[in-house]
Specification:
alpha+beta; 4 helices; 25% strand; globular
Length: 209
């Protein structure tokens, strides 16, 4: 009887351990955490702020200290890195219509519309890059159910509008935290200046003048 009880306890413990490991793996592989790890890797430090398009595996992050912005898709499997000086602005769209906008050197278009429960909310980031000039984040509806996703379209619209304010602040402070490369010294500057030598010899007994 004791052997049977021991066997039952071992099976129960093994089942509990497997359940815990499965839950831990699911927690670690959650979309938001995978994107956070990808942003930390490409930015070289934790981002100051990042936004996730839940269910689509896409996100964007800003590092003010590093002067860079990163976008990612495939839950962090692919990333692009931009300097903050390459950020041109952003547009917030509601059902395909631009309802708010910020652009470098232009007056902000403020949000003046509310979202219906079934509305489609997107944030489009604009960059000074001919190959990858924009990046779109689907904020609502989420691609699949997620506890971390906004509870409704109005919350997604409000979050997108907060990001417009954040981007506007970055655009106003052009060059904030951007580490500009030091200019390379010219070959002439690298050569050490020759030490000056007295080209005249004076007779110790007679003054030079």
């Amino acid at each position: 009887m004791s052997e049977l009880l021991r066997l039952v306890l071992l099976i129960a413990l093994a089942g509990a351990a497997l359940t815990f490991l499965a839950a831990l793996a699911a927690w670690s592989m959650a979309e938001e955490r995978r994107l956070a790890r990808a942003f930390r890797r490409v930015l070289g430090q934790p981002p100051d702020a990042f936004l996730v398009a839940y269910g689509y595996g896409k996100g964007a992050a800003i590092s003010l200290a590093g002067g860079r912005m990163a976008v990612a898709w495939s839950a962090g499997g692919w990333c692009l890195l931009y300097g903050l000086g390459e950020l041109l602005g952003a547009e917030l769209t509601l059902d395909g219509q631009v309802v708010a906008r910020v652009r470098r050197g232009a007056t902000r278009k403020a949000l003046d519309r509310a979202a219906r429960p079934d509305a489609e909310v997107r944030l489009r980031l604009l960059f000074d890059d001919p190959l990858h000039p924009d990046f779109e984040l689907e904020l609502w509806p989420p691609g699949r159910p997620s506890r971390a996703a906004p509870p409704q379209a109005s919350a997604a619209l409000a979050e997108g509008n907060r990001w417009l304010g954040r981007i506007e602040a970055v655009l106003r402070r052009t060059g904030l935290g951007v580490r500009r490369p030091e200019p390379a010294p010219s070959p002439a500057a690298e050569e050490a200046e020759p030490e000056t030598e007295d080209l005249f010899e004076y007779d110790e007994e007679e003054p030079p003048f």
